[in-house]
Design a protein that fits this description.
The complex is a heterodimer of chains A (52) and B (158).
Chain A (H helix, E strand, L loop, with lengths): L1 E6 L2 E6 L11 E6 L7 E11 L2
Antiparallel strand pairs in A: 1-2
Chain B lengths: L5 E10 L2 E10 L11 E4 L12 E12 L2 E12 L9 E8 L6 E6 L3 E6 L3 E6 L5 E6 L7 E7 L6
Antiparallel strand pairs in B: 1-2, 4-5, 6-11, 7-8, 8-9, 9-10
The chains are: A mainly beta (52), B mainly beta (158).
Chain lengths: 52, 158
């Protein structure tokens, strides 16, 4: 699994090679924060792309 | 009738100075049912926000649709497609804006990994099974918006 995260002019890349992948055909998105106030985020331009 | 194909996954796990390598065999879950379309886009990703064929399920919290955007408040949303499997390798990209100072956006993939992007500064990958373990992470500056791209792939041979 590789993750790229960009914010402003900064890009972070993480890669992990693992022992086995899970099989669930599900993706979950979660927005969370500290417990004292609600965490909020505006999400847009979601794209799924199969890699052949 | 659809044949179930075995997949060989090569693993190399780096923990501290040690590198563990092994090969495991597993069943390819996508071999028994059709996969999602090659691409799928949602301007506003959330239940009631996207009119496409994918299924968005609110499991917790609140999601408000505002035009081509979805505002998540302490929310957990599942994305799937009934009767269809994810491709063995795929990418997800998503934009997140208006993050509060302590807000984190997490994406769960393959029922085993969680990616956390936190506005207070940090990007991490967690393994969820058998317990939550941080397996990669980098600090960042604080931020209020991010473009997130996740690439999930496995090596296979038939």
């Amino acid at each position: 699994m590789t993750v790229f995260a960009f914010n402003h002019d900064e890009a972070i890349r993480l890669s992990v090679d693992e022992d086995k992948y899970g099989s669930e055909d599900l993706l979950a998105i979660k927005v969370t924060g500290d417990d004292e106030k609600p965490a909020e985020a505006t999400l847009y331009d979601f794209q799924y792309r199969a890699i052949s | 009738m659809v044949a179930v194909v075995g997949v060989v996954v090569t693993l190399a796990v780096c923990i501290g100075p040690k590198i563990f390598e092994a090969v495991v065999r597993m069943t390819d879950p996508s071999a028994s049912k059709p996969t999602l379309p090659k691409t799928y886009s949602a301007g506003a990703p959330g239940p009631g926000c996207d009119n496409g064929k994918a299924r968005w399920t609110l499991k917790e919290g609140k999601v408000t649709c505002t035009g081509q955007r979805a505002v998540y408040e302490d929310a957990i949303v599942w994305f799937d497609w009934p009767g269809r499997a994810f491709a063995p390798a795929y990418e997800i990209s998503l934009y997140a804006d208006d993050l509060g100072p302590t807000t984190c956006v997490l994406m769960l993939a393959r029922d085993k990994y969680s990616v956390a992007i936190c506005a207070s500064g940090g990007v991490s990958i967690y393994r969820l099974d058998p317990q939550v373990t941080r397996i990669a992470g980098e600090p960042t500056r604080t931020f209020t918006r991010a473009e997130i791209m996740i690439r999930v792939e496995e090596q296979s041979s038939h």
